[in-house]
Amino acid sequence: MRYTAFIFATTLMVSLSGCRSSGPPPRTAPATGFRLTVYDSPGDAAKRSVGVVVHTVSAGAISVDYGSRLGGTVIAAPDATGVREGSVNLIVNLTVPAGGGDAELATLVSTRSDGSHGGSGLTEKVPGNSTLTGIFTFTAKNGDYPLDTPLEIARINGKPVTLTVGKPTK
């Protein structure tokens, strides 16, 4: 009797609350262009990590540019549904010296696809009174975008960081 009551109560709770999966979004892509999914992991006053996942049915590459090319990779072969996936991770770190003077902003870009990856780092001096929120803005938005068209995904020190999906940019 207790076992039956337990099963009934559990079934009732699950049916009332619903079963929801919190897994990753399905790998879907528009017929032309690419789908961008944004991930933001707010850090603290000194560091921040953000990323985007690209889904497309087109062959090509992912390129990230900030003044000069920061990273790029070929998008892997499609899965069983015909969708190709790649990702870009962007990590920024601001180091402000205790004794004054210029601060240092380090940026790391990593591009990845099944079996292929690339990336690079960049360090630049910024005024010592700078804050990470004043220097770095993540501007990427979820959505569908055209191929071979630079898309701003962030701004660092007022300059755009762009993502291009399609033919390699450089």
Describe this structure in words.
The protein is mostly beta strands. It has one domain (about 25-165). Helices cover about 10% and strands about 50% of the residues. It has 2 helices and 11 strands. The chain has helices spanning about 1-15, 130-135, and strands spanning about 35-40, 45-55, 60-65, 70-75, 85-95, 105-115, 115-125, 135-140, 145, 150-155, 160-165. The strands form 2 sheets. Strands 7-6-5-2-1-9 form a 6-stranded antiparallel sheet, with no helix packed on it. A hairpin with a 7-residue loop joins β5 (about 85-95) and β6 (about 105-115). The radius of gyration is 21 Å and the shape is elongated. The relative contact order is 0.21. Mean pLDDT is about 80; it is low at about 1-25.
Question: What is the secondary structure topology, with strand pairs?
Answer:
Elements: H1 2-17, E1 34-41, E2 47-56, E3 61-66, E4 68-74, E5 84-95, E6 103-113, E7 116-126, H2 132-135, E8 136-138, E9 143-145, E10 151-156, E11 159-166
Antiparallel strand pairs: 1-2, 1-9, 2-5, 3-4, 3-11, 5-6, 6-7, 8-10, 10-11
